[in-house]
Structure formats: structure tokens, C-alpha cells
Amino acid sequence: MSNTILQTHNLSKTFGPVTAVNQVNLQLHTGELFGFLGPNGAGKTTTIGMVLGLVSPSAGQVELFGQPVSPNQTRPLRRVGSLVGAPALLPYLSGRDNLRLLARLSDDVSDGRIAEVIERVGMSDAAYRKVSSYSTGMKQRIGLAAALLHRPDLIILDEPTNGLDPKGMREMRQLLRDLVADGVTIFLSSHLLYEVEQICDRVAVLNRGQIVAQGKVSDLLGQQKMTVKVGVTSPAQAQAALQSLAGVERLSANGRYLEVSGVSGEDIVRHLVQHDIYPGEVITQRVDLESLFLEMTESV
By the 8 A CB rule, do 278 and 272 touch? Predict the structure, then answer.
């Protein structure tokens, strides 16, 4: 039995002469926390709209749990929860009463389940307050609780940490990890690259409507060359010595530092010592997801 929950096949969307999404192929597997990245205007929201059956594709297809999805084919969406944009809540009702109202759309959501999701998103102390008194972050929490009400197998989230303070963001990361540990698959669209790097198993990077990278975070970062900064008293002498080190791909001076890529810090130190040059400082700079993202989206 296939463990693929979400798959898109050459998914495309045009608005008149504008191509918003161009032959996007995504694949999510059971139990993944999948990051969907891209700059503003990349086509992320349009893609999510097609996945949720809110927008008709111009070409291609969406499949959820092996079944096609479109505005006229929504049955698979019964197993999906989502929080896209600001949650639509009635401000004159409490958070709990908003959830009770939404629960009427399902046959099997009890008051006990409502209390459970309220506690899970950390809103037990404020559940009886009117939504009009909530901060943006509190509304996000209730929106996530609403997405969890019917025990979905897949949750699609668009900027779920919007409006949360650092403590709230940390708690949200832990909550998403806990959900995945419970067997829920999560599709997370976010611009907070540090957050995505910390919690996501795989990512797809969308730019100008096209996927420019997709895979495990560790694999994507592993493809990038490390840069080693070497602090020396005589950069010119050290630079001349490193010219003969095999494997050096880039070598440049930056003040009292040399920046070297293509070789390890250990090889650099060994080579310099052989030339009677003793570095005072060696720093290996790890490429992070933000640097990789900027490189991919600015070069296309």
C-alpha cells in the first residue's frame, strides 16, 4: 500500500497572461513534516488553494490519499485540516464557542474533543474569553485547534507561527513535532526559514511558480560547499601558500581573514603549518537553509 498522502502532477495555474504556478510536482508521505518555501508572489498560496480544492487548476492534477481533488471533487478533503491565512472566527463569541459552532459541521466531534484540542494548543486559560480580546497569536492557536477538531490525517498550515512571541513559536514547533509523532502528516508553508530548518523532514522551494529544489533538508544543505574562515597575521603570505593546496575552489581575503571553500579546516591548517604559518582562528561556516534559499531564489 502506498504511503503517499499528497501528490501533484504537473500542476499549473494561469491568470490571463500570467503563469502563477508552472508544472509543480509535489509528493508528501505519511508522517512527514514537509516545508513549502518561496518568496512573496512565488505561487505558494495558489498551489495550496488548488490542493484544498478552492482553485481550479489550468492544467495538471492534485491527488489526496490516491483520489483526485478539485472544486467538484472534495471527498478526500474530509481527512484534511487546514489553517490558511487568518482564521475566520466570530469576534463576539469565545474561542470555545467558535469551536463548538465549527464542531456542528462534523458528526463525531464531542465536547470532550473540543476541550482536548483547546488544551493541546495552549488556550485552556483563555478559551472562555471573547475572540475580540485575542491577540493575533491567540487567534492562530484557536485556528489550529479548529483544524484539529475532526482528527485529520493531513494538516495544511500557512504561516502558523504568525503573531506568536518567541515562547509561543517554540511551543508551536513542539506541538507540530508531537502531531507528527502521533501519525499526522503536516504540510507547512512558511517564510521563517530557521523554523523550517529545525522541524521539517523535507522541503520544496518554489520560485516564480516553479519548483527549484525539493528533498531532505540535510541533503540540500549537504550539496553546498562549506566555507572556512582562517584568521592569520599575514593574509597575503597565507593566501600565496594556499594557492598550492589541492582542492581549493575559492580563495579570497577579507581583512585579516582568508575565506576558503572546497577543502576542510584541518587540511588548511596542516598546509599552512607546513609553510610555517600558524592560524590564530579557524571557523567553519555551515550553509543554512536561509543562505540556500536566497541563492536559489535570487539566481532564477
Answer: yes
